[in-house]
TrEMBL record:
This is Carboxymuconolactone decarboxylase family protein. Residues 17-103 form the Carboxymuconolactone decarboxylase-like domain. Pfam families: CMD, Cupin_2. It comes from the Bacteria. Residues 155-215 form the Cupin type-2 domain. Gene3D superfamilies: AhpD-like, Jelly Rolls.
Length: 250
């Protein structure tokens, strides 16, 4: 169902009230509401192509791209629509349209990448790791797999995400084991070179060793974090991994 439009009144209600009325009541009211003649999805498609053909890639174009997305046009479909229209509207106009479309559908691209990463492992990605967000650079997710006997958690890092330097303290026993299950990441101990991680890799982290771990800059990464039982155990969170140091990784 078409949403009641007020943009005309908001922007031009006092200066050009008739134009505002025609914009809100006729164009977006009467024309867009005729869904029995043409669906909102198809009207969005026509509008986007018409604006692109005129080279009108301004704020109104962004509005109609967002409307197209909300009306069901997918990221893959808009890419095909703009590619097809480029041969008729012109290559420079298509480039301008693509730049804006990438921004509008950016969230969908991230969701697609997340779904692909999930398909590569049997363990769930879990919920946003908000409880530990202050100790991470970037967004991570946490899925508790076992909280009895031994704590086991699936930790997932979005591309570029890593945790701060930290230490697992213990009077006896303790430490952590990482079982890499999907994607590509890194582990580094203080004073040593970073170690690249892939599915199947196992990292044994002794207590009292300062270290960090996380995703590669361009790849999702998941590992199971196994808490090794011990006495007097605690975690000490330290400084973040410097951005300039992290960017040297590939």
């Amino acid at each position: 169902m078409a949403v009641k439009q007020t943009a005309g009144r908001d922007a031009l209600g006092e200066f050009a009230p008739k134009f505002a009325e025609l914009n809100d009541e006729v164009l977006f009211g009467q024309v867009w509401s005729r869904e029995d003649k043409l669906s909102l999805r198809d009207r969005s498609l026509v509008t986007v192509v018409a604006l692109m053909a005129q080279g009108l890639t301004d704020s109104s174009f962004r509005y109609h791209l967002t409307a197209a997305k909300n009306n069901g046009i997918t990221r893959r479909e808009i890419a095909e629509i703009l590619t097809h229209a480029a041969f008729y509207a012109g290559w420079p106009k298509a480039w301008a349209a693509f730049r804006m479309a990438k921004e509008v559908w950016a969230e969908d691209a991230a969701e697609d990448a997340k779904a692909k990463h999930q398909s590569e492992m049997v363990f769930p990605i879990g919920a946003s790791n908000d409880g530990f967000a202050q100790y991470f650079s970037g967004k991570s997710y946490l899925a508790p797999l076992s909280t009895a006997q031994v704590g086991i958690y699936n930790v997932t890092f979005e591309p570029g995400c890593r945790n701060n330097w930290h230490i697992h303290h213990a009077a006896k026993g303790g430490g952590q084991i990482l079982l890499c299950v999907a994607g590509r990441g890194y582990y580094q101990e203080w004073g040593k070179e970073p170690q690249e991680l892939h599915p199947g890799d196992v990292v044994n982290i002794p207590p009292e060793v300062k270290h960090w771990h996380g995703a590669a800059p361009d790849c999702w990464f998941s590992h199971l974090a196994v808490e090794v039982p011990g006495e007097g155990t605690s975690n000490e969170w330290c400084e973040p991994v410097p951005e300039e140091t992290y960017k040297e990784l590939r």
